[in-house]
């Protein structure tokens, strides 16, 4: 047994070892892609601008489950040029509008238990793909904890979410994988923080995960129903990987890589097996 995790049982150690195996295996640099779905989203954006958000959403996105929006003026849409290519992005300022639209559009009217803690949704299908972003504080961490003003933190939260979800878009498109997994989240948050702040701080990631402070609570979602000991081991793995990323960004060879090559590098790096 790894001496560092001597508090784990044999079964827990096996679970952790299996979990830390890299699932980013096969990279396809030229995936087949049909962009015809963008025509629908271009029409939606035109409708939103001409007829208003409520009418555009209710007639084009959720005609069978229409909504009364609280803040229709706080809804925007664009075709965003991401690291993985063009993707429609809908931004929603009001938290209730975001939750209701996510429930009706993605979950077909059935409200998930964790919807209150969800800040973004990413859909990747054969016929369409899109991102919905809220303006909630990222990972439910307060502006005070981040040392920022309220509005500045909300704006940065949107930037983090956008690049975070675009990173998931990249791994899904080129590796065929986008999972609710710590390795995925380490990479996505890394690029989200770079986008919002210009640099990555491991401490911020630890706040988001609830490793530091008491607000962020995401880490326990990545191994559902895991034991207290296993969660402690996962926290240590996450902190070590985050510290590695903070130092990696300063290395000249890494900084010279393109955005896409940086993602590829981190996908192929065994971040959860760092000693």
Please describe the structure with a list of short key phrases separated by commas or semicolons.
49% helix, 275 residues, 4-stranded mixed sheet, single chain, alpha+beta
Polypeptide structure, described:
- There is one protein chain.
- The protein has 275 residues and is of the alpha+beta class.
- The protein has 2 domains: 8-23 and 179-275, no CATH class; 30-143, no CATH class.
- The chain is 49% helix and 10% strand.
- The protein contains 11 helices and 4 strands; from the N terminus they run αααββαββααααααα.
- The chain has helices at residues 10-19, 37-51, 53-61, 95-106, 143-146, 150-175, 182-197, 202-209, 228-248, 252-255, 259-268; strands spanning 75-82, 85-92, 120-124, 129-134.
- The model has no long low-confidence stretch (mean pLDDT 94).
Quick recap:
This protein folds into 2 domains: 8-23 and 179-275, no CATH class; 30-143, no CATH class.
Set out the fold topology.
Layout: H1 10-19, H2 37-51, H3 53-61, E1 75-82, E2 85-92, H4 95-106, E3 120-124, E4 129-134, H5 143-146, H6 150-175, H7 182-197, H8 202-209, H9 228-248, H10 252-255, H11 259-268
Parallel strand pairs: 2-4
Antiparallel strand pairs: 1-2, 3-4
Helix pairs in contact: 1-9, 2-3, 6-7, 8-9
């Amino acid at each position: 047994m790894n001496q560092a995790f001597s508090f784990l049982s044999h079964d827990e150690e096996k679970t952790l070892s299996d979990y830390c195996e890299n699932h980013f295996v096969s990279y396809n640099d030229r995936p087949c892609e049909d962009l015809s779905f963008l025509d629908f989203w271009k029409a939606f954006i035109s409708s939103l601008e001409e007829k208003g958000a409520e009418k555009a959403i209710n007639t084009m996105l959720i005609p069978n489950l229409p909504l009364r929006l609280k803040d229709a003026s706080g809804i925007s849409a664009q075709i965003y040029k991401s690291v993985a290519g063009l993707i429609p992005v809908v931004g929603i300022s009001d938290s209730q509008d975001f939750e209701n639209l996510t429930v009706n559009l993605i979950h077909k009217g059935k409200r998930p238990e964790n919807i209150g803690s969800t800040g973004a949704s990413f859909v990747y299908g054969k016929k369409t793909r899109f991102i919905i972003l809220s303006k909630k504080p990222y990972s439910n961490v307060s502006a005070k904890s981040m040392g920022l003003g309220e509005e500045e933190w909300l704006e940065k939260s949107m930037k983090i979410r956008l690049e975070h979800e675009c990173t998931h878009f990249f791994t899904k498109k080129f590796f065929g994988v986008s999972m609710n997994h710590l390795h995925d989240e380490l990479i996505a948050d890394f690029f989200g923080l770079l986008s919002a702040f210009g640099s990555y701080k491991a401490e911020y990631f630890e706040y988001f995960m609830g490793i530091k402070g008491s607000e962020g609570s995401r880490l326990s979602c990545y191994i559902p129903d895991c034991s207290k000991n296993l969660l402690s081991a996962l926290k240590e793995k996450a902190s070590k990987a985050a510290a590695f990323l903070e130092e990696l960004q300063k290395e000249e060879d890494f900084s010279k890589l393109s955005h896409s090559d940086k993602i590829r590098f981190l996908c192929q790096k065994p971040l959860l097996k760092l000693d």
